[in-house]
Amino acid sequence: MLRAVLINDLTISRGERTLFSKLDLTLRAGEAATLVGRNGAGKTSLLRAVAGLLRPAAGAITFESANGSVEADTARAEHLHMLGHQDGLKSSRTAWEELRFQTLWTGGTEDSARAAAQRFDLRRLLDLEVRRLSAGQRRRLALARLAASPRSLWLLDEPMAPLDAGQRAAFGAVMAEHIARGGMILASVHDPLPIPARSVEVGA
Length: 204
What we know:
Blueprint: E1 2-14, E2 17-28, E3 32-36, H1 43-50, E4 58-65, E5 68-70, H2 72-79, E6 80-83, H3 95-105, H4 110-119, H5 135-148, E7 153-157, H6 165-180, E8 184-188, E9 198-201
Parallel strand pairs: 3-8, 3-9, 6-7, 7-8
Antiparallel strand pairs: 1-2, 1-4, 4-5
Helix pairs in contact: 3-4, 3-5, 4-5
Domain ABC transporter: 5-202
Keywords: ATP-binding, Cytochrome c-type biogenesis, Membrane, Nucleotide-binding, Translocase, Transport
Protein name: Heme ABC exporter ATP-binding protein CcmA
């Protein structure tokens, strides 16, 4: 289990443009942090860099467990979930096929997938193809993966956007439980998360 993510002196560029530079951030077990800033400031790019999907122009991102440093590829492959703007769902599969496949692929079980479907009020939708789901239903299906195969670090890009007030509160409870178990959340947001979180301004 990861115990910390350390971001040191990080610079992210897009083409010839520097989005931000010399950013330092340490996120430890049991903490949530929100990335705030104007559109285009680099919030999504920072999440992608932590996930290993984007190479920083300068600086370092390292991961630690209770036993010391963890090799970055191992940390990303075994201890990280990322949910971006797109839900990352295959539209031709049924909701259950997609949830089951992604849960097993990330280390969960069929039982944990069914429990997550129940938690996110998806059971009556599981036989429907993903393309027939509404935006809010697809987002709940994507979020269910977080609960179905818990990993230490959740990287979330505007996770609440398509959810109604009740669904936001329900996901807030899931996030609170993850933090209470020693998990970590780093989220790009426009609206505050429904849990206590440190705010980090990007691109100031």
